[in-house]
Amino acid sequence: MAESPRDLEALDLDDLKRLVLQHLEEIAALKSEIAALREENARLKGLKGRPKLKPSGMDKTAAERRQTKDRRKQARRGKKNARLTIDEERRLEVEAPPGARFKGTEAYVVQDLLVCPHTVRYQRERWVTPLGKTVVAPLPAGIVGHFGPALRRFVLALYHQGQTTLARLVALLRDLGVDISKRQVMRLLNDAQARFTGEAGAVLRAGLESAAWLSVDDTSARHQARNGVCTQIGNDHFAWFATGFSKSRRNFLELLRAGHTDYLVNDAALAYMRTRNLSAPVVALLAGEANKNFVDEGAWIAHLQRLGIAKLKVQPDPVKIATEGAIWGAIMGHGLVAGTVVLSDDAGQFNVGDHALCWVHAERLIHKLDCFCERQRREKERIRTRIWWLYADLRAYKENPTRRRRGELRRRFDDIFTTHTGFATLDRLLGRLHANKEELLLVLDRPEVPLNTNGSENDIRCQVTRRKVSGGTRSEAGREARDAFLGLMKTCQKLGISFWDYLGDRLKVPEAPAVPRLADLIRQHAALA
User: Fold this and answer.
1) Which uninterrupted H or E stretch holds 136?
2) pLDDT digit string, tens, across residues 96-113
3) Burial bucket for residue 277 (CB in 10 Å: 0-12, 13-18, 19+)
């Protein structure tokens, strides 16, 4: 029996909204059911199902679609030759037939590339002082061993940005006429790179000091023939990588203190310990000590042993929690990640400070849920549709946040994730996601924070490609150089700087354009954001 029509005039605004939402959900469920029936019908007829098409970009906001459209228009505007610098002018002559009249010349621009070996023999003056000391004229800046800065730039750019293999790089250099061995190329890649690893560390410190939010992720890595993990930290202005053998929260905190080695028991450290359920007597014992600053791990462990904390056999482990807290205290003491939101995919080691969760990873849990009947599949798709509607409205909220809209989005979140579908596994999963409400809806209080970790996924892809191309690293110098150069390359890309120009400036290639310190540029961009 059909439901009797409701008196719309008697409904208030909230009831009308709920009625519209109910009808939209029913329409979405019907559309999904119709699509499934069509696919089933196609299979019965021996035809192919619906084609798998790429996303249409409807997930983008209207402003992002307009921005993409404007960029396409700008790309077509103007002549390409206007962006080129003419290095040489040549006049081409033609034998004209008798009676022809000269009508000037016709310009035709050709881009070419000159790649050839250039060998220089330096005759260095040698002098002997009256005291018998020999003085030799120094080599120009940028020369390492018997290779110049331009060759070093070519090797670094092709290996890291070009993602080529070592064997192919050596073969290419030899084909070009460069007399070089595999060992020498390895030295150019790994040795004497303190300048670059130091700048990568400065990039991390600048990012942690100035970032309103950080997006983090990790992926597997190989080092010294062992399975490890590469951690990415970054945002829209920088990227930084570190490869090690631990995925613990302590390891992540070690990375966040950006090279500092001290341990500090301050208010932030004590608050961290209480949050991680360290027993109150242990917290009081640490807070009551006069000495609260420790220069390194040895001094800190000796302090825990002197207090008798290291002998305690309870859960949670007091040494582990106290150590994490002291590292967090040092991070806060150095002014790093103060008020910064850490956005992650819900991996436990990243849950520190102000923590936000990626909506894409949260919805993926529902997407991967196995269904065993048509009703379960229908309920799953209905919930997914409501989640993506909420996601789209959260994106719109980021552009124009208001207090009224914030309250509405919170209520809608509760309505979705407290829904009882009768599908037990789905209901438990919705309850688990509802428990993460504050982390999923942190964007309502901090609209500048992204809703997903797509930036980290994109950043860490270069590490995945490097792993697939070359496997792992063997030496500590090789590991540090690989992480540093890939991070610097990504940072240059985000800051709109040519990585080729960056290498040229740092390696002292003659006539290379000057590139400011990346750390200074990161702070400037953060101040303008």
Assistant:
1) strand 134-136
2) 999 899 989 998 998 988
3) exposed
Which element (helix H / strand E) includes 328?
Answer: helix 318-333
Task: Give me 34's structure tokens.
Answer: 């119709």
Query: 123 pLDDT exceeds 50?
Result: yes
Three-state DSSP state, 419: coil
3-class SS of residue 86:
coil
The first and second tokens of residue 484, run together, are: 């540093």
Residue with tokens 């000391």: 133
Burial of 108 (0-12, 13-18, 19+ CB in 10 A): exposed
pTM score of the predicted model: 0.82
CA distances from residue 307 to 138, 256, 284, 288, 478 in whole angstroms, order as listed: 57, 27, 12, 11, 41
| Contact between residue 223 and residue 350 where contact means Cβ atoms under 8 Å apart | no
Local confidence band at 38 (pLDDT 50, 70, 90 cut-offs): confident
How far is residue 522's CA from residue 176's CA, in Å, rounded to a whole number? 38
Rounded to whole angstroms, how far apart are CA atoms 494 and 34? 44
Mean pLDDT of 341-369: 95
pLDDT at 58: 43
Residue 219, helix vs strand vs coil: strand
How far is Cα 459 from Cα 119, in angstroms, rounded to an integer?
38
Token pair of 130 as six digits: 């009256």
- Nearest alpha carbon to residue 330 among 231, 260, 279, 386: 260
Task: Please state at what angle helix 518-528 crosses helix 476-495, rounded to 10 degrees.
Answer: 40
**SS3 labels along 449-488:** CCCCCHHHHHHHHHHHHHHHHHCCECCHHHHHHHHHHHHH
**Top-confidence residue, 58 or 74:** 74
Contacts of 193 (CB under 8 A, 6+ apart): 477, 480, 481, 484, 485
Residue range 65-89: average pLDDT? Answer: 68
